[in-house]
Specification:
With 202 residues, this protein is mostly helical. The protein has one domain. The chain is 44% helix and 10% strand. Helix 4 links the parallel strand 3 and strand 4. The longest helix is centred in the N-terminal third of the chain and has 35 residues. 34% of the residues are buried.
């Protein structure tokens, strides 16, 4: 019941409420982005969602205009491409707020595997194999609170599969709390090193 009905209903209601409450702050953030750096307010990119179907995911633009499009792990030093205000919205995860629109449209959930672009082809293939792509992607998820950009592709896929196999209200609630704590602590925002040796207990 929760997986098929309640989760989507909660996503729709909460995303609608948050969009209404945050409308003015979102507009202000958009204006600041526009006046402090060249380029569009939003970063719109095709991502892979449930059943590996593509959709356009929205974020506030945090990088300089013309920055190379590739996965975080491929950048030598990604901070060289981030604007001063972009650094702030990344550290506070404010750049993710436009994804409330994706949630409202039913393309994403608050909690689930992160929607990835084709630059993360390895993780996408692993998700197809282990069944992690059979659920809606989320703003945050088990892999994000377990290391985010500082765990290996293999471990990301394992965490995503574990989440997909164990969806329940309690798990989502715990991940929401852990996400809030992680955002407050500014943890694992940038890829410092890939922990290939990270082991996950069954």
């Amino acid at each position: 019941m929760y997986r098929k009905i309640v989760k989507r209903l909660l996503d729709f209601i909460l995303s609608l409420i948050l969009i209404v409450i945050l409308l003015v702050p979102l507009i202000i953030i958009g204006i600041i982005i526009k006046v402090t750096s060249k380029g569009s307010v939003f970063f719109i990119q095709q991502r892979y969602g449930k059943n590996s179907k593509t959709f356009n995911m929205y974020k506030f633009r945090s990088m300089i205009n013309g920055a190379p499009i590739k996965s975080n792990s491929e950048f030598g030093n990604i901070t060289n491409y981030i604007t001063p205000f972009g650094m702030f919205i990344r550290k506070t995860s404010i750049d993710e707020l436009p994804q409330l629109i994706n949630i409202l449209k039913g393309e994403m959930s608050f909690i689930g595997p992160r929607p990835l672009a084709k630059t993360d082809s390895k993780v996408l293939e692993l998700r197809k194999f282990n069944g992690a792509d059979r659920v809606l992607p989320g703003i945050s998820g088990l892999a994000q609170v377990s290391g985010r950009n500082n765990i290996s592709d293999e471990d990301k896929a394992v965490y995503d599969a574990k989440y997909a196999a164990n969806i329940c209200f309690r798990l989502d609630f715990v991940l929401v709390i852990e996400t809030i704590v992680s955002v407050i602590k500014h943890e694992d925002i940038f890829n410092e090193r890939v922990k290939n040796s990270n082991k996950i207990n069954n």
